[in-house]
Each structure stands twice: as C-alpha cells, then as structure tokens.
Amino acid sequence: MPDLEHSWKWLPVSACLLLLCVSSACHSVSGSRPNILLLMADDLGIGDVGCYGNRTVRTPNIDRLAEDGVKLTQHIAAASMCTPSRAAFLTGRYPIRSGMVSSRGYRVLAWAGASGGLPANETTFARILKDKGYATALVGKWHLGLNCESSSDHCHHPLAHGFDHFYGMPLSMMADCNQWEISEKRVVLEHTFHFWFQIMAFATLTLTAGKLTRLIGVSWRPVIWSTAAAILLFTTSCALGTLLVHADCFLMRNHSITEQPMKFQRTTSLMLQEVSSFLKRNKRGPFLLFVSFLHVHTPLVTTHSFRGHSAHGLYGDNVEEMDWMVGQILSTLDSEGLTNQTLVYFTSDNGGSLEVQLGDNQYGGWNGIYRGGKGMGGWEGGIRVPGIFRWPGVLPAGRVIHEPTSLMDVFPTVVQLGGGTVPRDRVIDGRDLLPLLLGTPHHQHHEFLMHYCENLLHAARWHQADRGATWKVHYMTPRFHPEGAGACYGRMVCPCSGGHVDHHDPPLLFDLSRDPAEAHILTPDTEPLFHQVVDTVSRAVEQHRRTLSPVPLQLDKPGNLWKPWLQPCCGPFPLCWCDGDSDPQ
User: Fold this and answer.
1) At 6, phi and psi to the nearest 5?
2) What is the pTM of this model?
3) Which of these, 64, 130, 287, 539, has the minimum number of CB atoms within 10 Å of its CB?
C-alpha cells in the first residue's frame, strides 16, 4: 500500500540509465535526459481507438504510437471525471489528498470565476522538472482553477504550478460554448436567474396592484411601468445567463486573455501552431510539453474539413480530427529531429460519456466491452483509458502490458527520468513505470488501487500477482441504463450518493482477469476465494484511509460558486469580448 516510507523508494535516474544500457536499446541512450511529450484526450472512450479494438473509427496515428511503443491494457484514471483525474495525473496523488473532490455533487470546477483549484502546496511534475532545467508548457485544457481573491491573482493558474508557458482554455469545453443542443451550465444558471428575477417582477406587480386599488380610474401608467419592468427583468435573466456561460469559453496565453468568446473553427489550428512553435523554440531540450486536447468533449467542435469524415457522425469526426492532430505533432517531432530523444505518452482523462445522446444519435464515446462510462463511480468504462508510451530505441516496440497501472504513475516516471526527486514529505500514490515498460522482472507494481466517486470510495481492485488475478470489489454503484439513453435518469452525470446509488453488503466481486466487462457477479457459492478476497481488500482500504489527512474540499461551495469579482474578462465586465489571435491558416 502507498505510504510515506514508499515515497522515497524509487530507482534513481542513474539506475534507470543503467537498466537501459544493459538492454539492446543502449545505443540510443547518450546519458541525456529525454524530452517529454504528454498527450491527453478529453472524454475519449478506450473503445474508440483502433489499437484497443475499434475497427470503424480511423486512428492511424495513435495506433502507430502503440506499434512503435508499449501499450497498457489496464491503465486506470484516479477518477471518472476530468477535474479530479487531472489533479491526480499532475501530482501523482489521489485527488482526495489534495481536496480536488466534492462531498455535495459538484463533480468538476464549474466556473472560471470560482475560487477553488489545485492548492499551491501541491507539487506537480512540471514544477519539479522546471527546477531541473526543463522548459515546460501546457497547450490546451487546464480545468484546475484560476484565481483565489481577485480576477488577476492567478493563484491556481498553470504558471503557478510549474509551467513556463500556457496557451489554451483555463476551464473546459462545455456543451453551451457552441450553441449545442445539450446544455450543461446555462440551464441551471438561467433557471437561477429566472427564479430571482421573477420574484422581483412579482414584487413589482404586487406593489403596483396595491397602488392601483387606490388610483383605480385615475391612471394606467403603473400597469405599463410594471409590465415593462417584468419584461426587462426576464430578458435580463436570459441574456446574463447566456453571457456568463460564453464568457467562460475563452483562450489565454500565459496570464492574458487572447480570445473571448472563442472562435471554434480556428481553435484547432491555433493549438497546433502553439505546439509547433514551442517544439521549434526548445528543440535543443530538454522540454516537457503537455498537450491537453479539447477533443472529444461536447460540443464536439470539428473543423469543416473533418465534418462527415467518419462512419460515426460528429463524434467519430471529432475523434478522427484529434488523431490527425496527433499525427501533425508527431510529424513536427520528426522534422525537427526530436523523435528519438522524446518520450511520448498518450491517454485520456476518463472514459467516454454515455449520457450525451440526442434522439438516436450518440455524441459520447464508446468504452468497448467495459461497463459504464464517464462519471459512473468505479465501473471500468469510466476509468479504464488508453495508455501508450513510445521512446524509439529505448522502449521495446509492440510490447503489451496487462497488469494494472495508473495515470498517477506518470508523475514519478517523468520526474525521475528528468533527474528530479519524488517528494518525500507526502504520500505519492503513483509508481515508477520505467522498469515495467522495459520488461525488467522486478518492478514496484500496484497491489491495490482505490476508485473514488467524489470523496466516497466506491470500489477497489487487488492485483494478486502470484495468481495472475485482478479482483474488483464494489461497495457502492450508481444506477444507470446500459444502453446510454438517459443513462443516469436524465442527469448529465451519475450521482455518487443518494437515492440513485446502490450500497452493497456484501460487496460486489468481479474477477477482471477473467471478466473484464464486469458482467458476472461472484458470490460465496460461485467463488471459493470470495471471503478471502473481500477481507484482503477491506484491510487494504482501511490501511489506505489511515494515510489520508483532512483538507479543504476545493469543489464544494463556496469554492465552486461563481463570484463576479473573479470572472476573467478581457474588457469591463460584463463586456467580455476580445480577439487577439489570428488564424494561422
């Protein structure tokens, strides 16, 4: 189990290089630290990728990464939603340790003008590698907070967490950003505004009616004024709600807003231009570049050249455009002579969404054989994601690894490859993946992995290495319709607690090594090891809980409420309108 003692038991970089030098790949290692390129999709289903079994969506560039590198088949996100998953990815720690979770149903940061975010005392791999001389950059989605007390303090900004350069979207793509038929934030916000403005309008009419009883037969002016006031209040509620949502759909370069609201038909080319520019500026290395795609989150913004490109409608078009973007980035590595000196990693922050459906059209991802999807607690479909590493001449091409790994493992892996030291003052839940990727017989594996939904532990897995088995225990599960339509009873995301969540006593047990689809519930009658497995996992859960310390929950109110004084705006609020970028095409 992860504990403070384990946090310093990592192979030093010199030992890693020694392992490399005794391999057949030694001729490619000159002793210099590699460049690191991290590619993360948004809401991509593992079943959407060709090298993970898809035969109808074309992903040749991602597939080529797997052919030339190492593919992980049991790669697990620390949460089935983006904000907590990304916090864990950057810090190597379960998001509950940093407080990047909620206890009240707020699954992600909802507003750019909220005060919650990745705390300043958390250490990202970018901060460590920057201190070791790496040029560090993030291009794309952040979604881990911006400001604390003013609209310009940038306490949660990527530049406050180790990135030298940031270009992208501080919050996240929302369905509302592009007049999408499915609304996420706008409906809730507009209903709130409507409620209060309607109360005000009702009060105005009541006061006017009282006055009319005294003035009946004298003047109709109060009726006219009250009617106009009610219409104005109602119109204001609609306009302000829409304005605030679109104000959150903006691009920043470092601390400056460059485009608000975004012009989505040029966002893809702007991001690729930024990636290319960074690679060319820093080709002498070493560099750490994190490309966090806006694809394939709704509203599935896709350029005209990829519309109708796939056999699966707009969602398939968006996946294929993202794969093309991966190809463009890899081509830049090739043209700049960086391929053999660069470790490339590809993944998704969580599984595909089953709820994004309009009529008969599915606009979310496909999670293959795995049960559930984005936001659905500990079910495999929401947390099992692609995991591909390529480092030509160092990592063996075509290797496939089936044992459990985690997005949190990227933290210690890249920190040590970059010559840094994994922090010893906190629990680090990730494991150094390099020995496993190289195929060395002895490596530190995950015996147990915990699966949270907000601050609640929904499930846990046990990798019983001596038997080659991976067991999964579910303590609670959200109810959903497997076919996807209205999967979580009309909600955009399944709840973690409440009436639509089932508690299991005894817990549900699955053997993922024989039943990765979690289709067959094991019982004491059907599995002789049932009690042994459940007891072993329960002890591991208790040991894990003893390593947790109370911290403020960043996604709860008031940290996850919109605050007008924190709203990023490139003009006087609410006139948030600017266009500082030109289309590179």
Assistant:
1) -70, -20
2) 0.87
3) 539
